[in-house]
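The instructor's notes for this session suggest beginning with a concrete chain rather than abstract definitions. Hand out the sequence below and ask the class to guess, before any prediction is shown, which regions might be ordered.
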Amino acid sequence: MINFRMLKLSDPWLWFSAAALIIIGFAAITSTTYNSQIKLDLDPFYFVKRQFISLLLAFVGLGLFTYFDYKHLKKAALFLYGFTMLLLVVILFTGSSAQGAQRWLQLGPVSFQPSELSKLTLIVALAAFFSERKKIENFWQAGYLLALVGLPFSLIFKQPDLGTALVFVAILLGMLAASEASQRLLIFLVTPIISIVLRPVIYLWGLYLMVIALVLFLTRSKLRDWLLILGINIAVGVAFPFLWGMLKTYQRQRVLAFLNPAADPYGAGYHTLQSMIAVGGGGFFGKGFMHGTQTQLQFIPEQHSDFIFSVIAEEFGFIGAALVLGLFAILIWRAISIALESRDLIGKLLASGIAVMIGFHVFANMGMVIGILPVVGIPLPFMSFGGTSLFVGLSSIGILQSISMRRHKIIF
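After discussion, reveal the predicted structure:
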């Protein structure tokens, strides 16, 4: 626990950036839902009220994680990880479905997404794992590590929720780098991901395998490294058709629509095309609050959640979009700074994991909105409509502030 005088040592830029993003998010949610609710003769502030209630609950998480010493999370890591895995198993049998995905658990009037909670508990579990093992040097430990990440990845992929599953991969790679893992292990984990991306173009993939072989030869790698690194990349390439078949039909359509949105402008490419129109239509200064054409005419489904950034870009223009991007840059910068200045490894790893999680969310969400990435179900932190995402976001800020306040020795 802390003395409240320690709050003087909290990071003011974290408070400012998170608060500003939440306020802008509320404005965007109001703009995209107000008129549509009126047309249906419903409460125009229904979504805003729900988000405000979620904000109050999120403040509880913020207060708890700020108040308690972050070092205690290491002791609770196994329990938190096991509890969220149990929720992910339960949701496969009793979860609520929406739009073809079974992601929500209903507790009376409250529904929440365990997959969102699992992102934060995975960061805690990985931080505890890496802090106990200063360096992951052998592939047996790597196998245990992959199982730690692979279990929630598989359960969430089954829902299906490919976007959240990809966040786990980003968190793993980011925390591996922060823990100063061996270069061999990073290569072992990163190169198969590149193989998956290049495999559809068989010639590029073949050239990529030749580059890997050349690097292994020039670095005089052992036979074991040849078998593991080159072997896993070849195995991934051979298994690609099977992996592609595991995707749901709509997921495959989204990938194909990303490559050519105009091929199906009223189907899989609809979200991308309409979102790009909204972003481009905003111009430099925007069309004004509640005056966005695409936004007010509801051309983009679920615009108040995953496509909230298109509302900002259309109604507040380049200036508004740049402001939001700048606020996220400040937040991620402070998270990285806290990680670098942490007094212990567990604090460094927790802050690094949170920075990677938020950074990947921002990159993936904005990327799909402007059409440079496929459409995936990833919310924009602090801004998208959704209580669980907001709770996880503010809880993450609480952990960062807990680390920040304990970077220095306190003398009373």
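Then share the key points. The two ends are 15 Å apart (CA to CA). Residues 4-405 form one domain.
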